Amino acid sequence: MIPDGMQGIILSAKAFAPAHITGFFETHQHSNPVMKGSTGCGIVLNSGVETTVTIGEDIKKTDISLNGKAVSGSTVATVIEMITDIPVAVHSQANIPVECGLGASGAGALSTSYALNEALSLNLTANKLNEIAHVAEVKNSSGLGDVAAQNIGGIAIRNSPGAPDIARHDRIPCPEIDVYCIVLGELPTDSVLGNEEMVGRINLAGRKAMNELMKAPSVDNFMSCSKTFCTETGLANEKVIDIIEAVESINGMASQAMLGNTVFAISSTATKELLEHTLSEFGNVLHYKTNSTTVRLI
Question: Angle between the 104-119 and 126-139 helix axes, to the nearest 10 degrees?
């Protein structure tokens, strides 16, 4: 039911949540989804997902769409169920590739959570909204640590697992960095996390990568640890390795977005123009920048 006093009124709100590229990670299981998650390090981008939520008497059932197409949106549906039983229209615009390792699911969950809170004037705190988005991700096996990172911004280090207000986190201080991506295809998160043997390799490599990063928490060391992680786990296929080697041949640095069939690169000591030209030999180059801000209402 529409709240008393609001019959006939159309309520609407819009929120943005940034993309996040995980360089390496380790999974941490827990019976409580608030405590379950991952540790690791990744880059928060200046692009992401914008979600508009609309509520009114004409909306008889919940409708979820992504980039103009109706979707089941299980993670977003869980966010809605945790916040309200009122039918809502949720329309998300992803300005990033979906299911390619850029944290689109977490961004969609976060932007939906914040927009619903605003539209319904629920006055929930940021910590509660972040927790809802994290739990929705965990329950739907669409992510483990993106929501926490998307609330940190920059190059985010997740030192302990769980929802953002529970997890310990830090950042690698750095100026704004250009980040270039080549998307080779989709790689659903649950297809990897459902493989016990692969998760075992991920956890060993992820723990090692975190230890190495913390010896020298710099951008270049993050990229180096990420590259080692994607090759040691066997997640990097031949095409990914070819692109990484091409970038390294011009003194750039590259690795694979986790979990996704996407290569991300920074110029390091190479020129941005040379890096972009090198990457263009493998496909369409997407250009982003690091983002120090997090979720916001629009």
Answer: 140
Q: Do 167 and 47 share a structural domain?
A: yes
- Number of domains comprising the chain: 2
Q: What is the pLDDT of residues 239-272, one digit of tens each?
A: 999 999 999 999 999 999 999 999 999 999 999 9
DSSP letter for each residue of 206-245: HHHHHHHHHHS--HHHHHHHHHHHHHHTT---HHHHHHHH
Instruction: Compute how many other C-beta atoms are within 10 angstroms of the C-beta atom of residue 172.
Output: 17
Residue 161 contacts by C-beta under 8 Å, 6 or more apart in sequence? 28, 30, 35, 36, 37, 38, 39, 144, 145, 167
Kindly report the pTM of this predicted structure: 0.94
Which helix H or strand E contains 12, and what residues bound it?
strand 11-28
Look up residue 186 and give its DSSP letter: -
Contact by Cβ (8 Å): 39, 145: yes
Structure tokens that stand for 91 in this block: 């329309």
The phi, psi pair for 86, rounded to 5°, reads: -80, 135
DSSP state of 294: -
Say if residue 233 is in the same domain as residue 265: yes
Please list the residues that pair with 255 across neighbouring strands. Answer: 264
